[in-house]
Design goal:
The protein is an alpha/beta fold and about 260 residues long. It contains five helices and eleven strands, in the order ββββαβββαββαβαβα. Strands 1, 2, 3, 4, 5, 6, 7, 8, 9, 10 and 11 form an eleven-stranded mixed β-sheet that branches. The longest helix has 25 residues.
Length: about 260
């Protein structure tokens, strides 16, 4: 059973020259880029750069439904989603790696479901797969748990918004973690985010505020060890799945067959 990796900002490649590229069309259009398929340990792995190979897509324009459908149609059933995040607490400085266990959606207008008919309501109380989370949090220097608030973007938060999020007990802020996670759930795909902290958010640290150039530079600086960690998390994944058959109790009229 194939595993998947969706790379975030600055995470545009994953394999060497021996990987094969696969183009996939979906009912929701083309994914962000051709998918490359290679091997990690005993696993066949499909890699998709979330923003495209040249960062063509902003967070609010990523074709999330096409991305997840394309991975599922190739046989992917478990997905790691590396991403860049801002920290809402001084305890998690740049370079920290966090595997969140909760998500708060503050986006708007994004197409966030495959079920426009049929009365389907997926359970989403725990948005991340515990088995995938365990594979990642078992690695050294990985922080286990935290709430990631997903904002619409592409702008960064104001200081007031940042302080508000921190006051709610949220620990990370990101622009792409939703609707990716819920679309994975609707396709019965196990999913877990692996977050690399690139900055302290505007309301947490005094100064000029968050700048994209600094975020990209920090992500690039940490990319080699971050990719290595994702490799190790993939190698640690066990056979048993935990998110299969989650549609069994979601409704009565599934409007299509899963790919």
């Amino acid at each position: 059973m194939m595993l998947g990796v969706i790379g975030g900002s600055g995470f545009y490649t994953f394999f060497g020259a021996d990987a094969r590229a696969v183009s996939v069309e979906t009912p929701y259009g083309s994914p962000s880029a051709p998918i490359t398929v290679g091997t990690v340990g005993d696993h066949e792995v499909a890699f998709l750069p979330r923003h495209g190979v040249k960062h063509e897509f902003s967070p609010h324009t990523v074709p999330y439904r096409a991305n997840m459908w394309a991975l599922r149609s190739l046989g992917v059933r478990r997905v790691f989603a590396p991403c860049a995040v801002g920290s809402l607490t001084p305890d998690l400085g740049p370079g920290s790696i966090v595997v969140p266990d909760q998500l708060v959606d503050r986006t708007s207008g994004r197409e966030d479901t495959y079920f426009d008919s049929g009365g389907i309501h997926v359970a989403f109380a725990d948005p991340y797969c515990p088995a995938l989370r365990a594979a990642a949090t078992g690695l050294p220097d990985v922080v286990d748990g935290g709430t990631m608030v997903v904002i619409q973007g592409p702008r960064f938060s104001t200081r007031a918004e940042s302080r508000w999020f921190a006051g709610q007990g949220f620990t990370l802020v990101n622009m792409t973690g939703y609707p990716e996670a819920v679309l994975a759930r609707e396709l019965e795909m196990c999913y877990a985010a692996i977050a690399l902290v690139t900055d302290l958010d505007a309301g947490i640290e005094v100064g000029s505020g968050v700048r994209a150039v600094d975020v990209f530079a920090e992500f690039e600086r940490n990319m080699p060890p971050f990719k290595k960690l994702v490799y190790e998390a993939l190698e640690a994944v066990e056979v048993e799945r935990t998110c299969a058959h989650c549609l069994a109790h979601a409704g009565v009229n599934l409007p299509f067959e899963l790919p």
